[in-house]
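Weekly sync, protein design subgroup
Attendees: M.S., D.O., the rotation student, P.L. (late)

Item 1: inverse folding check
M.S. brought a backbone from last month's batch and wanted to see whether the design step gives back something sensible before we order anything. D.O. pointed out we never logged the input encoding, so this time it goes straight into the notes. Structure tokens as presented (151 positions):
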């Protein structure tokens, strides 16, 4: 059975990923011109904040006094790359979409790794599975937008 410490570690890793996504989508919303994309990215930013909050509550319930509340160093580098790419591309919506898809690839992998944890408590596993389905859906939707814009 996964120890409480391992479960909290898994939750904190996902919170970092979600905070990275929250900030990345916020910046992407600022970088694109298309109003539909702005709305979509803002929606996903809020979704990631909500997901992080759910996991922070679970971590506290497991005894973690200070659950993760920020993104990772790698995420900060990823967000900087979005800023650089969008600036260079002069607000190229397709380029921003491609970068968001790359970020979502990473989020999907993090969730898949979390789901490989054996014997996570049922409530934690249920939250992770539900969030994973929504993160996968966001990835697929962003990919579809990116592919549609490429044609």
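Designed sequence read out in the meeting:
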């Amino acid at each position: 059975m996964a120890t409480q410490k391992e479960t909290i570690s898994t939750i904190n890793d996902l919170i970092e990923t979600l905070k990275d996504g929250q900030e990345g989508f916020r910046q992407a919303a600022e970088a694109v011109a298309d109003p539909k994309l702005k709305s979509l990215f803002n929606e996903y930013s809020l979704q990631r904040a909500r997901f992080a909050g759910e996991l922070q509550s679970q971590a506290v319930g497991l005894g973690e006094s200070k659950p993760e509340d920020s993104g990772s160093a790698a995420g900060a580098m990823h967000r900087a790359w979005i800023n650089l790419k969008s600036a260079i591309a002069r607000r190229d919506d397709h380029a921003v979409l491609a970068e968001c898809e790359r970020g979502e690839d990473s989020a999907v992998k993090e969730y898949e790794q979390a789901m490989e944890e054996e014997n996570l408590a049922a409530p934690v596993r249920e939250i992770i599975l539900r969030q994973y389905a929504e993160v996968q859906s966001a990835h697929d939707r962003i990919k579809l937008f990116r592919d549609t814009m490429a044609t």
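Discussion: DSSP finds five helices and no strands in the chain. Residues 4-150 form a domain with the Ferritin fold (CATH 1.20.1260.10).
Action: P.L. to compare against the previous round before Friday.
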